[in-house]
């Protein structure tokens, strides 16, 4: 029996029921009744009587606010790891030094100390403290990292972390610069007859740098290098070359410290020979190892930078080279290569930036004073000078010659007047007519490789 049938209809609801907060609502089609917190639906029948159907008897209560969770203590601050790892002997001297802790550090935490001191900056982020060098450590440097502990030690961000209980010392040694990276930079700056392009993955992570224009500026004309014909004169690096320029304004630069990091750990990439050079040159190239192309390129770079020319990549060379790479300071002279062929008729061919700029008849050494086969770098240059020595008959000579490029001891490419050219006639030098000698001298700057091939006299 429905609630309305039991009380005889809505019209007979007693006062007692009203005191129980009966609320009735009627309409032509529906009514809702809420009794003592219960909800009911009233439906209309065809006879006009309404029936209430319970929708449920769940009481509605106001939501109560939940209590905030109690923070979990993070525990005492602990040092978890250091990179580079203590005791390592081949650490990257340009890479960041990172310390990782068990919980977040306070922004004002005391910081570790490095010895030797180098320019750079510390940054605290979350549970790490990172030192980023400005220009890195030199190769084979013993580095000491002192991490403060105790009352004045490194501090956690959370009060429960406190300070690092005990300080510690981490020692490591940097490795050596890579011959491969030396080659990459020399190629990029135009001191080698190759290009080097960083791989997509290396470029994306900041390794390497933008490509250098394939054609470096040409060497200065010989006219600008001329000296008085009445006296012997040695040219200087600044006399036969323009000051080192930089790449186009649109070329990207790579920071000095990135260059240092790459010197320890070279990025991936590809070497490609520039077109036009002969196999007598390209066959001497070896990736990642010392070879004569390296030697000539280092000498050329030393000449441009005003360093002692010995073909060795020592500390001074690396210091200047990394700075030049960071600034994209390219070779102002371009790349020149000379090939003396002792097959009859003897000849001299000279390439500049991959193109043959001169091919001329030449003379090489007679028997007993033969011109040695091999590849050698130009190490001394004169526009004009006297050569002294002993003739095969024992007499002395004191001859004035022009446009001289010494490449192997006393052997040089130069002009010397002869009735003919193309055979064994000299005392070891490569003699060429005046006009070709003058022309190629302006291109055969310091470090230019000269290869001599063919049967020696």
TrEMBL record:
Keyword annotations of the record: Cell shape, Cell wall biogenesis/degradation, Membrane, Peptidoglycan synthesis, Signal, Transferase, Transmembrane, Transmembrane helix
InterPro entries membership: LD_TPept_cat_dom (IPR005490), SbsA_Ig (IPR032812), Transpep_catalytic_dom (IPR038063)
Pfam hit, one: Big_5
Annotated active site: 414 (proton donor/acceptor), 429 (nucleophile)
Q: Where is this region: Disordered?
A: 49-73, 206-249
The L,D-TPase catalytic domain sits at 337-453
Q: Does the keyword Transmembrane helix apply?
A: yes
Question: Could you give a single Gene Ontology term from the biological process aspect?
Answer: peptidoglycan biosynthetic process
GO MF terms listed in the record are:
transferase activity
Mind telling me which residue stretches traverse the membrane in this protein?
22-42
Keyword Transferase found: yes
Q: In which pathway does it act?
A: Cell wall biogenesis; peptidoglycan biosynthesis
Q: What is this protein called?
A: L,D-TPase catalytic domain-containing protein
């Amino acid at each position: 029996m429905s609630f309305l049938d039991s009380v005889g209809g809505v019209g007979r609801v007693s006062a007692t029921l009203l005191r129980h907060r009966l609320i009735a609502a009627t309409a032509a089609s529906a009514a809702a009744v809420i009794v003592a917190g219960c909800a009911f639906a009233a439906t209309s029948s065809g006879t006009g009587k309404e029936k209430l159907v319970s929708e449920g008897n769940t009481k509605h209560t106001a939501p109560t606010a939940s209590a905030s969770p109690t923070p979990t203590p993070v525990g005492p601050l602990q040092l978890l790891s250091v990179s580079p790892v203590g005791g390592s002997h081949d650490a990257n001297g340009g890479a960041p030094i990172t310390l990782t802790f068990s919980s977040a550090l306070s922004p004002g935490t005391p910081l570790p100390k490095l010895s030797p001191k180098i320019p750079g900056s510390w940054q605290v982020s979350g549970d790490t403290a990172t030192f980023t060098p400005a220009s890195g450590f030199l190769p084979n440097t013993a580095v000491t990292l002192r991490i403060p502990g105790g009352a004045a030690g490194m501090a956690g961000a959370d009060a429960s972390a406190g300070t690092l209980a005990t300080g510690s010392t981490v020692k490591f040694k940097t490795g050596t610069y890579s011959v491969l990276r030396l080659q990459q930079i020399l190629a990029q700056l135009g001191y080698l007859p190759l290009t080097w392009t960083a791989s997509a993955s290396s470029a994306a992570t900041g390794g390497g740098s933008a490509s250098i224009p394939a054609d470096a500026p040409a060497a200065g004309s010989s006219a600008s290098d001329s000296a008085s014909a009445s006296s012997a004169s040695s040219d200087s690096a600044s006399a036969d070359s323009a000051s080192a320029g930089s790449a186009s304004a649109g070329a990207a630069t790579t920071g000095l410290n990135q260059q240092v990091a790459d010197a320890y750990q070279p990025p991936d990439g590809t070497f490609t020979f520039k077109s036009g050079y002969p196999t007598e040159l390209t066959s001497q190239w070896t990736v990642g190892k010392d070879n004569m192309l390296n030697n000539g390129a280092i000498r050329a770079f030393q000449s441009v930078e005003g360093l002692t020319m010995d073909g060795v990549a020592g500390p001074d060379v690396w210091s200047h080279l990394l700075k030049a790479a960071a600034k994209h300071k390219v070779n102002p002279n371009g790349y020149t290569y000379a090939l003396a062929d002792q097959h009859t008729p003897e000849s001299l061919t000279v390439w500049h930036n991959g193109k043959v700029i001169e091919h001329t008849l030449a003379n090489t050494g007679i028997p007993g004073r033969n011109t040695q086969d091999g590849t050698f770098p130009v190490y001394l240059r004169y526009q004009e000078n006297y050569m002294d020595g002993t003739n095969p008959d024992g007499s002395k000579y004191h001859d004035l010659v022009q446009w001289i490029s010494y490449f192997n001891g006393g052997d040089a490419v130069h002009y010397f007047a002869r009735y003919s050219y193309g055979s064994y006639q000299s005392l070891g030098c490569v003699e060429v007519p005046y006009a070709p000698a003058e022309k190629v001298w302006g291109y055969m700057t310091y470090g230019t490789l000269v290869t001599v091939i063919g049967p020696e006299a």
